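During the second half of the funding period, the structural biology subgroup turned its attention to how the target accommodates small molecules. The most pressing case was DP6, which had performed well in the primary screen but for which no bound structure existed. We therefore specified the complex as follows and requested a full 3D prediction, including the ligand pose.
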Amino acid sequence: MKATARAHPNIALVKYWGKRDEKLILPHQSSLSVTLGPLSVTTTVEFTGEKGADQIEINGKLAEGSERKRVEEALKLVRAEGGRKLGAAKMVSRGDFPAAAGLASSAAAFAALAVAARAAAGFKRDTRAESILARRGSGSASRSIQGGFVRWNRGRRPDGEDSFGEQLFDEAHWPDLRMLVGMVSREEKEVKSRDGMRSTVDTSPYYPAWTKDAEREVKEIVRHVKRRDLEAVGELAERNAWRMHASALGANPPLCYLKPATLSVIEACRGLRQQGVGVWFTLDAGPNPVLLTTVKDEALAGAIVMAQGATEVVHCAPGGDAQLVETHLF
Ligand code: DP6
C-alpha cells in the first residue's frame, strides 16, 4: 500500500496554453516537450486503509488551499478507479528545484504522484493511465511520465481518454542536447499558469490565432527533433514561445511574464548566434529563459546567462521515464 516514484519536469518546445475543458484539463491544442534531467520530484504515497483526511506534505510543509485540493482530487481519482477501500492517504513529496519559478514543477510533482499513487493502490504500471491521471493534476504533467521527447495529444473525446502524453523519441535520441535554465528570478510568479491561460482564453483577441497554427507546429517540430536539427528546433521553439507570450500580453489585464533580465538573456542569445554559436531560447509562464543548445556550446551559453545577472544556471539534458524507486520518504 506504499510506493515511491521519481519524475523529471519538462520544458515544452511547442507549448500548451489554454484549456477546452477546465475540469478534465483538456487542451485546445497538442504540445511537445523534452524531459529535464537531472531535476526531479520524488513522492511517496501510502493508502492507510483508515478513515479520515489525507495527509499531504510538500517540500517539508503541510499542503494547504488549492495545492492541497489538487492533490486530494488526484488521490480521489485513484480511489475511484481502485474500487476498493483504500482509505485515507499519506503523501510526502520533495523536489530538488525551486517551485513556481517558471519551471513547471507541478509537471514533475503530478507525474510522480500519479505513478506512486497508482502503484500504492496496487495497479501495474500503465503509462497511458498514469499520464491521464497526471494530466488531471496539471496539464503539462501528462508529458512527464515518459522520458525524452513527448507529445501530449490534444484528443477529441469529451471524456479526455485520448488526451495523454506519448513518447516519440527516448532520451538516447539526442544525448548532447542541453537545456539551460537561467534563474533570473526566484520569486513566485504573480499569475500562475492556470490563471494566466484562463484569462488569455477568455479575454485575449489573439487567442484564436495562437491555437490556429499549433497542430501544424507540433508536426513540424517532430520532424526537426527527428533529424536533431538544433537550428530548426530553436527557431520554431522561439517563435512558438513569443506567440504564446503575445497571446498573454493581449489579455485583459495584460499578462507580462518577462523581467528586464529575461530580455537581456534573449538579446545575448541572439548576439551569440551572430557569432556562430548554436543557442536559442524558450520561455514558459515565468521570467526564467531556458536556453536550447548542445554540449559543444554549453559552457559559453551558460556564461552569457550569468553575465546578464542570473543567480544560477541549471544545466539539463534529456531525462528518462518516471520511475518507481525503492527508498520511501517515510
Ligand atoms: C507555459 O500545466 O502548469 O508551461 O494544466 O493549469 O496545471 P495547468 O497548467 P500547467 O501549464 C503549463 C503551461 C506552460 C507551457 C507548457 O508546459 O506546455
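Two results from this model are relevant to the next phase. Residues 12, 15-17, 25, 31, 104, 106, 138-140, 193-194, 284-285 surround DP6 (CB under 6 Å). The mean pLDDT is 94.
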